[in-house]
């Protein structure tokens, strides 16, 4: 009986306390917004504007304490290199990956691929949305200034 | 005495040898802390634990209520009893050899008297252990004594003590029974056909 | 009427539970396992016994945890590699020597893999062995009294991880270097060399410890190996009996940031060791006796129960560059972790932790490839076999991060997938996944009673999870690891129970309870007590002075110590309490503690003698008492030692009840 129910819940009924915000779902069970921008607290497109150097600087400090043990700009390390991440992913995706990594590596096809490649799941460093936003700014800065390692 | 009855009488005597191999009496105790029970056996010449260290543990428990330690060495009866049984075996065999019905009664009487004396002695020892308590005992319950029952069960504080005859005692009873049977049967053969009739009548009645 | 009631009674609860699940919806998928059905399967009624003993390594607590299965009840903890103030192990004069090593006294250890002794490939309930990872050692624990009886150090080793896996008749147990270290070719000594000279100087060793019929361990031989990291091991069985398999990673021979630098090669190796051949070489006197200082400690209750240490200076080393047919490398994808041999002994399963498949090697193919010399290279005299020649099959889609495999004896294998946090059941012959179940969270090892032997009890499986998070009431940042009991008796695995475990159990072993119960000791017989300082009656109790040493020969029985008033001890004395517990009954230990002692308590089992060293620092009167609530008058079980100033003329005096 229990096993029937289990299957009924979909193969990976893994008990994640998913925040269920999607209305239209595609074949991954993800909404088209999630498909593009990741799953997590950031559920709306952000208006970024010009690179805010002050914010990027804050992001750099945050990056050094919370991210740099596993990520480098130009070299594969424990996790992927990040120099061009802001070109490959939307800022919302980057923030959701930072803020909700456990669910991302379980459900998002892109994050799943990365996990299979790197084998170390990205840990949740418990950043606030503002802090994650500052890291996005830092990554944008690093992307624009390809030959610098710090601001 | 017929040859058959002499053999029976010899058996009654010889089977008492078993008394040297099986306990006469057993006391077992139950308490929540002893889920598997704890107990001691009285044999013809010793008092032993049912399990190797039971006697030590019983003495350990008893010291709380001020009971003397049970030390087989200090009980002279245990030194005498083997001789009493040896005497019964020897005289029983002599009676079988000699073939005297009259002496069977004497032997039986002596046996029964000794058995009663043994039980009385057991009671006295039990009384002594149960009443003669160290006044400085850690646990003193006013009015409480700890004499084990002669036969049957008795609740002594948290312990339920059960005292019952053991194999050796039953062997003695059977021996007495056989000797009585020999005496009775011989009585009938002495009287010739007369008593055989009576027996037939009896059997009929019984049927 | 009654029957109808019963039927309604038994069905009412499951129905309630099922409807609860339906109401709660899919989010509670993980709770479905804990149905009423599961509850009844793990319920062991008060006073009833569990069906299996589970022996769980304590990891960084250095001990061995004993749990009942299926209830998950924690029954006991056996102190092994760490001092245990709970009973004085490693503190008492009798047990201190158990923790001696060639580095001196080591009070802590990291215990990873318990391994039951086997006879004819089946667990036999005599002993359980366990390795120490940090200061390489192997311990033997008797299953008659659940005490550590012997610890042997492994020389020329670092990080004794691939250990102690037994051969089918406990002829040998394995020990291998997880960390290679620089070893001088001439004398195997650790060298003062730059760390980045790794490739040139660093070597590994695979050690084989011989176990005598009585359990005594000695290192029969070591095999010198390339400087990889040797990770786990299992002995062959049935057709593969005579061989042992060791996984290795870091075939890159990196010495820094192994996380990345040791994950580069597509394939690392499983080392297949022909130990029967090695044993023959040893018999022929081949190999070289090399310096290899190591300490063996043992304790025997029949010989007084005092641990003895002996130092052994040399060890026999076999070099595959000089001796043929000793070791072969089986290429295996991506940093394999576990290596497990199925009950038939035909298949060798590797958990390639960074691999996307589970490779299964065939022992028959391996033998053939060796015969036909299908080699694709050689490393330090060890031929590397051709991957395709030895591979039986690859299990597709086994989950991410496959680590360890055990078997149910019904043709199935069960593999933990650490990253995807699941256990995958697969058919060995077909190498096909047939079922999978989530675990919470990230399982390392798994255990089926007898699951690495030739006769598994394929009823339960325990997942030993590495991450606990929200499974229990929170206990701050640090929490116990979580084990999960899974029913594997049917086609589908069913989660039955979560239970917390002490320390960090890496591996565990299980055995049917009846195999252990029959040999259980309940107490030590006083008449067999061979301790030189034992006294077997209160009449022998005494206090003796010998220079500044004071020896107190003391008895403990409910509810007093003899003597319990002691005078004549002086500041600066070394006082030894030699305490014999005179009880001869099950479960009546007495404890001993004295105020201010820089030590732990003693917990003395019935019939046992233990000694406590005390160096009083101040004058005054110091109470001591029994620490184990032994009887109604336990609180009365106490005494005093009077300590006089140095040079005072108070004579030794003692007594009880005077």
Automatic annotation (TrEMBL), chain B:
Q: Which residues cross the membrane?
A: 7-27, 80-98, 105-125, 167-184
Stretches the record annotates as Disordered: 188-207
The UniProt keyword set, sorted, is:
Membrane, Transmembrane, Transmembrane helix
Biased composition, Polar residues: where in the chain?
198-207
Query: Biased composition, Basic and acidic residues: where in the chain?
Result: 188-197
User: What top-level branch of life does the organism fall under?
Assistant: Bacteria
Name of the molecule in the record: Cytochrome C
Source organism of this protein record:
Fodinibius halophilus
From TrEMBL, chain C:
Subcellular location(s): the record lists: Cell envelope
Q: Assign the protein's first listed, main location to one coarse class.
A: other
EC number(s) given by UniProt? 1.7.2.4
User: What is one GO cellular-component annotation here?
Assistant: cell envelope
One GO MF annotation is: copper ion binding
Cite the PANTHER family for this sequence: CYTOCHROME C OXIDASE SUBUNIT II, NITROUS-OXIDE REDUCTASE
- CDD domains according to UniProt: N2OR_C
Name assigned to this protein: Sec-dependent nitrous-oxide reductase
What Pfam family does this protein match (any one)?
A: nos_propeller
* Highest taxon in the source lineage: Bacteria
Keywords attached to this Swiss-Prot or TrEMBL record, sorted alphabetically, are: Copper, Metal-binding, Oxidoreductase
